[in-house]
Amino acid sequence: MKTIFLGTPAFAVPTLDAMVAVGHEVLSVYTQPDRPKGRGQELAQSPVKEAALRLGLEVTQPEKVRQQEVVDTLRAAAPEVMVVVGYGQIIPQNIIDIPRFGIVNVHASLLPKYRGAAPIQWAIANGECETGVTTMQINAGLDTGDMLLKAATPIGPNENAVELSERLAQMGAQLLIETLQSLAAGTVQPEPQRDEEATLAPILNKEDGCVDWAWRAEKIHNRTRGFFAWPGTQAIFRGQMVRLWRTEVLDESCTARPGLILGSKGPLRVACGEGTVLELKELQLEGKKRGSGVDFRNGLRVGENDGFE
Q1: What global pTM score does this model have?
Q2: What pLDDT was estimated at residue 41?
Q3: Mean pLDDT of 220-242
Q4: Mean pLDDT value of segment 244-271
Q5: How far is it, in rounded angstroms, from Cα 269 to Cα 171?
Q6: CB 3.0 to 4.6 Å from 201: which of 114, 186, 207, 289, for a disulfide?
Q7: Residue 174: other Cβ atoms inside 10 A
Q8: Rounded to an integer, what distance in angstroms lies between the CA atom of residue 230 and that of residue 114?
């Protein structure tokens, strides 16, 4: 098929690679403009732009895809289908109407659950045991278009958002290829979403990473996994910020106040809500390197009455 690809993050790269590998004619790749990044604030290319250049594809980076000159260019290209994977801009109706087979989106959830910007993160944070990918027809709503194909996968009990994203990216690439084949053959039947079954996965902000030790250990563990890349989960110890990197829910109970560190040596175990206990296996004091819970305890000479705020 003659296609135009719109995407920006690393999650989108396997789909672009797969489309080229099976012989789809990618007329152009649209991605976000280069943005300042890092301490030096030097302009950085998106992962999709890097991939497109590697594949020898034309790259277009409009500040706003809805600009009339961009719409005219897309219409003149006459793609049979357009594919969107994490592009980062809302696609207006006058672009949706251009391709014969519409615009297909690869979304990292089993729609209608987890519509929105952070479906992988919120699925883990909410303790889901299963997720997947859905291909859908883009419409004017927020992930509300008709569903095409789905593929499900379990979420590991200790799997974090980065690890799950890598798996779903590969699944999404394969599902997109199957979807395009089905569209061309006329064998796929679009299925409307049931709005009453929808849940939302809003964009993450820094406050989402704040730990409340009155929560059960499972909730803190799930949020640490879900918010692994950003914003992370943070707590306060002796007035300093501590980032939690790796945790484990323990099969034990306690009567201590939430946030209190249990015991005077060994693994760093913390009392949580409803008598549950969480081990902090890897964490990072502000301005220091990541280290084990045991190293944290020994390095700061944590006592029996110490605890997190």
Answers
A1: 0.96
A2: 86
A3: 97
A4: 96
A5: 37
A6: 114
A7: 14
A8: 18
